[in-house]
Design goal:
- The chain has a single domain (5-83), classed as Sandwich (Immunoglobulin-like), CATH 2.60.40.
- The protein has strands at residues 5-10, 16-21, 32-36, 44-48, 54-58, 65-72, 77-83.
- The strands form 2 sheets. Strands 1-2-5-4 form a 4-stranded antiparallel beta sheet, with no helix packed on it. A 3-stranded antiparallel beta sheet has the order 3-6-7, with no helix packed on it.
- By secondary structure, it is mostly beta strands.
- The protein is globular.
- A hairpin with a 5-residue loop joins β1 and β2.
- It is built from no helices and 7 strands.
């Protein structure tokens, strides 16, 4: 088992990112199906990696926090708030 997670970071061009990994349960299945960014209204792009992780890049460089939900297989969600420093 490897737990799912979401972390934020700022790249060398000062774009803010959210990196999301679905996690892997004991049956090699994803723990989280998706991440819900419905509280975020501005534009972003994302890159899905071969391991199923997703890197979101936000165009608004002035954002100070991201509020999102990690949604699991049962449609239960965990609200997380990530703040940029």
């Amino acid at each position: 088992m490897f737990p799912g997670f979401a972390v934020n970071y700022i790249d060398k061009n000062n774009y803010k990112h959210l990196y999301f990994f679905r996690g892997i349960d004991d049956n090699d299945e994803p723990i989280y199906n998706n991440i819900d960014l419905s509280n975020y209204d501005d534009r972003y792009i994302f890159t899905e990696n071969l391991d199923g992780s997703i890197d979101y890049k936000f165009y608004d460089k002035s954002i100070v926090k991201i509020i999102c939900k990690l949604v699991d297989k049962n449609n239960d969600s965990n609200l997380i708030i990530l703040k940029f420093k």
